[in-house]
Amino acid sequence: ARASLKKLKDQPATTRDGIEIALHVNIDLPGDLGQVRGVGASGVGLFRTEFLYMNRRALPDEEEQYRIYRRAIKRLRGLPLTLRTLDLGADKGTQAEITSSISPLGLRAVRFCLKEVDLFRAQLRAALRASAHGPVRLLIPMLTHIGEVHQVRGLLARYMEELTHEGKPFNAKIPMGGMIEVPSAALCSESLASHLDFLSVGTNDLIQYTLATDRIDAAVSHLYDPLNPAVLRLLAMILDAGRRRGVPVAMCGEMAGDPLFTRLLLGMGLSEFSMPAGALLEVKSIIISSDVSKIRHRVHRLLKKHDPLEIADALETINRL
Ligand code: PEP
Ligand code: MG
To answer: How are beta strands 198-201 and 176-180 bridged, if at all?
Structure first.
């Protein structure tokens, strides 16, 4: 099966009825960037930057980050790099003193960055400077309300001004996207979409927060269910908001890389998936074998169901088509 999947590498991810799907890769470590072209992906949909803290007490300064990001862009030779700003939190990072004290409902991700503005400044300036060398998109994690988007935009404008004065080049039109991974952001995704260039759904956290179920606690893993109707309704809302505002919606949580959910997501209208490189060709094989015009009405009926078990049954039928 591996060998036959490999043959799909250079084939476009187009459904039977001609819908083009973008398949991107999630990258946790710069050393893994070679996998992007290796599986024929169209870019990096999620470049996690928590590695910056690995085996050290402080973040690298602006200059070092700039060099790391520039090297990443060079390695991608023209493919887009979606650089997610620092997402420190309970389940992230290796800097025990910093991260162990951050609860999932605490000062994590963009909240932390907006408080530690010096640290955020170094990262945003480094990312801006790197954007002079290739297609970079910024992605802001853990947004919970529109005010955070305005704050980040304000900081970006200030750093752009600084760089202009210093004569350092950057892309003034750098796209800025937001992660939708908190119920409040999903419920208000239309207002977020109207102030962002793209949305990316982080299902790992969205499921955790919607279902009040710790994503790393094995004792409640039976409750951690992507097919819970509450989760599906939020996903439908987010995709709807994107369509209404003409803003692209991607998904970079684990759900996007699980072949069990590929047809469900296609039927809901998702057209950009980002996942670990190892999952990409199998997901592509399902996309190629799917006729969305035949799936769509079944998915819509599935979305009206209330019982996760019934939903799972309906999905199994769709996946067998
Ligand atoms: C997510 O929450 O789905 C996500 C992609 O971000 P992370 O797994 O890094 O929290
Ligand atoms: Mg997350």
So the answer is: parallel
- Enter the tokens of residue 12: 């476009």
CA-only gyration radius of the chain, Å: 19
50 lines ligand 1 (CB under 6 A): no
Closest ligand 1 atom, residue 208 Cα: 2
Tens of pLDDT along 61-82? Answer: 999 999 999 999 999 999 999 9
Q: Can you list the residues of the chain whose pLDDT is less than 50?
A: 94
> Could you give the residue ranges of the DSSP H alpha helices within the chain?
2-6, 34-38, 62-76, 96-99, 109-115, 117-130, 146-166, 183-187, 189-193, 203-210, 229-245, 262-268, 277-288, 292-302, 308-320
Beta bridge partners of 14: 20
Predicted model pTM:
0.96
Token pair of 3 as six digits: 């060998």
Amino acid identity of residue 304, one-letter, is: K
Three-state DSSP class for 115?
helix
Please give the backbone phi and psi of residue 85, each rounded to the nearest 5 degrees, phi first.
Answer: -70, 165
Distance (Å, whole) CA 267 – CA 270: 7
Q: What is the pLDDT of residue 191?
A: 98
Q: Looking at ligand 1, which residue's alpha carbon is closest to its atom 4?
A: 202
* Given 234, 252, 256, 280, the catalytic residue: 252
Per-residue confidence (pLDDT) for residue 56, from 0 to 100:
86
Quote the ligand 1 centre to 286 CA distance (angstroms): 23
